[in-house]
Amino acid sequence: MKILTIIGARPQFIKASVVSRAIGQCSQLNEVIVHTGQHFDANMSDVFFEQLEIPRPNYQLSISGGSHGSMTGRMLIEIEKVIEKERPDRLLVYGDTNSTLAGALAAAKLHVPVAHIEAGLRSFNMLMPEEINRILTDQVSDVLYCPTQTATENLRREGFDSKPVEILQVGDVMQDSALLFSQLAVPPADVKSKEGFILATLHRAENTDDPARLASIVNALNDIHTTVAPVLLPLHPRTRGVISKLGIELKVNTIDPVGYLEMIWLLQRCAVVLTDSGGVQKEAFFFGKACVTMRDQTEWVELISCGANILVGADTDSIVEGVRNNYGRLVNDTDNLYGGGQASHRIAQHLSKYSVAVG
Ligand code: UDP
Predict the structure, then answer these.
(1) Strands 143-146, 166-169: parallel, antiparallel or unpaired by DSSP?
(2) Domains along the chain?
(3) With a 6 A CB cut-off, is 11 part of the ligand 1 pocket?
């Protein structure tokens, strides 16, 4: 059975590192990988293929930049050509990026069944490009791999139960990655603060594309850096670009985006995590650290319910207070919220069984 996998953005490389590994261990499955090029810098793409031993993509589409419509449209055109050439039995997509949606749409229109990893997640904020991408991808998928109970319930609530699709709660592949690579953590080359630091990430469009929100967040980061503890911020290229364009003064310790093994090292040693990332909210939890999330909603609501994570939006005072209150606080995964590191294995097993069933 031939699986055509579409990846293109940093978190998808990290997820594929465990799923492609599991697929590679199933003799019935033959995976062909397409890299759309959505993320292309050495430190946003190549480093993950090297560090995490992800199979080299069979296709490099080199599509990045431009508006959402332009990027998604160009991907749609090129992925359609690959599908027509490869004639896969199934297409596999991850998460909620433009690469995800382009892949799912191209396949659905050519009647190639689509499996979606991270199905069912919802922020209920339709202003987020990710929310649009994930809802539409779920709609055209026939296998929906849900990471959490909440994701499964979201799909049920939306009526997926009565559709001819399979919904499987497999757990979260990011927990598999965290467990697999945690022993291999390495320090980033240019880290100044070695302990007690606050690990921050900032790249969500709702924060970077709104100058007032961004200024409010940067004020908070600068305040925390001087009054609480050093803030270490591996700076996403999008955020770096906007900050330099707007001439905002960022006084924290910034470094270039780091590889995953360096990121794990930072997660293992930081005193608290401050982020607007989806994946990093969970990784804070996997490494036992409290998380302060600079968003108004999250898809990972179980972390809010169990008290591991708090939402503080973009308000300067709320961010500073959130970090101060959670500095050094450790958290515990007592309820096995994310499947315990078996998700990629379950997905590969399911794809193999499916291949037997369809012949
Ligand atoms: N990450 C990384 N290096 C960095 C920042 C993040 O390897 O400098 C990893 C992080 O550990 C997580 C993933 O990238 O596994 C999250 O990606 P991102 O925050 O870009 O996307 P999101 O999860 O918000 O979709």
Answers:
(1) parallel
(2) 2-171+342-358 (3.40.50.2000), 183-326 (3.40.50.2000)
(3) yes
Six token digits for residue 257: 């985006």
- Which residues does 277 contact at the CB level (< 8 Å), separation at least 6? 201, 203, 204
Mean pLDDT by 10 residues, the chain (359 residues): 97 98 97 96 95 97 96 98 98 98 98 98 97 98 98 98 97 98 94 84 96 97 98 96 95 96 97 98 98 98 97 98 98 92 98 67
- Of 76, 148, 80, the closest CA to residue 304 belongs to 148
- The residue among 95, 117, 83 whose CA lies nearest residue 3 is 83
The pTM of the full predicted model, rounded to 2 decimals, is 0.96
Q: How far apart are the CA of 276 and the centre of ligand 1, in A?
A: 10
Task: Determine the distance from the C-alpha atom of residue 34 to the mean position of all C-alpha atoms in its chain, rounded to a whole number.
Answer: 18
Neighbours of 305 (CB within 10 A): 12
Ligand 1 pocket, residue 278 CB under 6 Å: yes
- List active site positions: 203
